[in-house]
Design goal:
The structure is a single chain. The protein is an alpha/beta fold and about 170 residues long. The chain has one domain (about 5-174): Leucine Aminopeptidase, subunit E, domain 1, CATH 3.40.220. It is about 40% helix and about 20% strand. Helix 3 packs parallel to helix 4 (about 130-150). The two termini are about 15 Å apart. The model has no long low-confidence stretch (mean pLDDT about 95).
Length: about 170
Amino acid sequence: MNVENKIELLQADITKIIADAIVNAANTSLLGGGGVDGAIHRAGGPEILEECRKIVARQGGGKTGEAVITNAGRLPAKYVIHTVGPVWNDGKYHEEEKLANCYKNSLQLAVDNNCKTIAFPNISTGIYRFPKDGAAKIAVDMVKDFLSKTDKIEKVVFVCFDDENYGLYEALLN
């Protein structure tokens, strides 16, 4: 199957997406925050926070570019994959590479947990100020590259909350 046929673009609320896994743009505490992170924790309920606390007790907080998985609580997904995106500092601290790792490690965690469908928000483009155009290009390139090397993922959904991100992804995917 063509890689492009496995990618879908939606403008929606990621907490309403039915998928095996949805990705949370988490912070290093893994204990909830603002934006997508807060929305996922609120909609999913205390089960997600409880599992995040166990992860923190076991390994400490999340590291930028890495990913961990929990149940999805009350969300329509089976799992939440929490990845910590980089804070943008003019590209001086390998932010592009760290953001690429968010996508790669989230996809690998999905494969490792037999997830066939995964939905991504626009990681690091909110309060972390990663330039939206650059973030979209990294996301699309990483997902296409990963999908070209595996048949384990059947669908990747980019879920954009705002018009600007939706337009950027639409241009890259068409």
